[in-house]
Amino acid sequence: MANRxxxxxxxxxxxxxxxxxxxxxxxxxxxxxxxxxxxxxxxMLQLNLCNSGRAGCYTGRSVAVASDVIRAExxxxxxxxxxxxxxxxxxxxxxxTVHPGRSVVAAFRAAGDRPSGADTRCRNGQAYGxxxxxxxxxxxxxxxxYSGIHPTQDLADPEERAWLCVDxxxxxxxxxxxxxxxxxxxxxxxxxxxxxxxxxxxxGSTGSGPALLGGDLNLRADADPDVRSCAPPGHSRxxxxxxxxxxxxxxxxxxxxxxxxMRGATDHPGLLAxxxxxxxxxxxxxx
Length: 287
Fold this sequence. Notes:
By secondary structure, the chain is of the alpha+beta class. The chain contains 4 helices and 16 strands. The protein is globular. InterPro entries: Endo/exonu/phosph_ase_sf, Endo/exonuclease/phosphatase.
């Protein structure tokens, strides 16, 4: 399947919007179908695994514990922060076992490394960044992955923060990001640009349905700055009581959020939420 390159204004998406079309193998479920006009219900899990090997929160156990959580909770969508490249296929294999007979999309985007102009690396030499797992209806459904580097970065931090989105069956734009932790004003600017510019641009160019974002935004509610100030009107949001959030555009209702223990394997709990997608919206999320 040929790759397709979409051109965006450089000031809007900055370094490197990457779009990759790829077909990927099997495994998954979901709750109800938009074919009948009924709402669609999904379960979304956000995880920050602190698995670079370089941070003080590294334990070497977070991927194994994440595997246990995926088996126990059977989420339909998983967003992953602070991971190494090889963590995605490892967790994908687990995700496939809890969604047998479905087709799975697994995506990874490395954070940039400003000094080298290449990727940030984990201690084991693998690329370090963010990932996403989702399932689709059939193996031959086209999947398009979008990713890029945020235009605003903390120039004192060599790591350049990235974002990643997957167009799921043309009915849902599922995204993740890990925002700057060295300056709240930087993370707020990254959050605002992602929600105000990048996601609307992607949705407009692809005709996809509503957008769903999970990630460690390094911003809190009821703080200065407040994470809610970067969300446009009509967006809904849940959090883990700290810096991990799940945000949704209009057409999606978030409810029933729950923190999931990671048994000390990382410094963040898992954030699990129920996602209700309005069945009257255009597009067809996975059934």
